[in-house]
Amino acid sequence: DTAVSQTPKYLVTQMGNDKSIKCEQNLGHDTMYWYKQDSKKFLKIMFSYNNKELIINETVPNRFSPKSPDKAHLNLHINSLELGDSAVYFCASSSRDLTTGELFFGEGSRLTVL
Amino acid sequence: KQEVTQIPAALSVPEGENLVLNCSFTDSAIYNLQWFRQDPGKGLTSLLLIQSSQREQTSGRLNASLDKSSGRSTLYIAASQPGDSATYLCAVNGAGKSTFGDGTTLTVKP
Predict the structure, then answer these.
(1) What is the 3-state secondary structure (H, E, C) of A17-45?
(2) A25 to chain B, closest Cα gap in Å
(3) What is the rounded (10 degree) CA torsion for B66, A94, A104, B18?
(4) Inter-chain CB proximity B32 and A105 less than 8 Å
(5) Which of A41, A88, B30, B101 qualifies as a cystine partner to B6, CB 3.0-4.6 A?
(6) A42, A43, A50, A96, best to mutate vs chain B, most B CBs in 10 Å
(7) How far apart are CA B40 and CA B55, in angstroms?
């Protein structure tokens, strides 16, 4: 009964391709996030969704498009992949907007662009 | 803009030692602060969450403190074990998003 699950766990693809990463949480949380962890292990927020609405969109290329079909799912679609997109992408969720809730993370999806 | 710094970047200790990891942040307008553990190739596991109104939280051998006015938090690990080896990250939560430090990589030698 994984709380936050991401698929796929590993993704290897060529430059220029389009790929998607899926995320689901069964915690009943209202808010979901995508984070990027680069090769130096720095963790940066990319997007935040609250009840299917975009709340935060950090400075991320518009090749990255999050989609939230319902509050339990937040998928990440990436167009025209570039070498610099190689990283581990983490999905997370929290109740409300972090005023009282903890962040819970998925196991990560390691994307390698060749 | 919130900035979070963790010192030291890496720490190696012999088994059984008590140790302290530090986290500092620039904007004291926070909701709470959360400590995580990350094992190589794995996701982040939440260790402790301290609300802005609290001074400390304890879980087993872990104790986290928060001094919001000075922008500091510490994670104290008592009687360290090799299984504690991991990267420890602090996240400062405020205004709808979390800002992470760069982590402290801890190695506990048997």
Answers:
(1) CCEEEEEEECCCCCEEEEEEECCCCCEEE
(2) 14
(3) 10
(4) no
(5) B101
(6) A43
(7) 30
